[in-house]
Design brief:
Shape: rod-shaped
Structural class: alpha+beta
Number of strands: 4
Order of helices and strands: HEEEE
Helix content: 40-55%
Largest sheet: 4 strands, antiparallel
Oligomer: single chain
Number of domains: 1
């Protein structure tokens, strides 16, 4: 009786394992990219809120300068309008996220 020596993978076993890994990568990579994009959009949204808070504080202290701020490749644009209904100044910040959706957040400051 001959004894076979099995010390490794055959070509079929190797191709099968490679194809399983390939299928896993193909199904999981798009979801990973979507998760990374949403995470980046959340960071952009939080930065917009933080910048608006800082500009409102500057406006409250009387040292405001309205301008555009560029952080990590995203442009945040500030605008100031008088709200007739509330009799307050409305300070708004607008930006565009990685999915090309435009956001605007506003805060209010008492009139001068």
């Amino acid at each position: 009786m001959l004894v076979r020596d099995k010390r490794g993978f055959t070509l079929v076993e190797m191709l099968l394992s490679v194809s399983i890994w390939f299928m896993l990568c193909v199904t999981l990579l798009p979801q990973l990219m979507l998760i990374m994009t949403e995470r980046r959009n959340t960071e952009i949204f939080n930065m917009g809120n933080q910048l608006l808070s800082e500009k409102l504080q500057e406006e409250y202290n009387g040292e405001s300068t309205l301008n555009q701020v560029v952080k990590d490749g995203v442009t945040y644009t500030f605008s100031k309008n008088f709200n007739e209904k509330l009799y307050k100044w409305e300070l708004c910040v607008t930006w565009e996220n990685k999915l090309s959706k435009t956001y605007e957040r506003c805060g209010y400051v008492n009139g001068e």
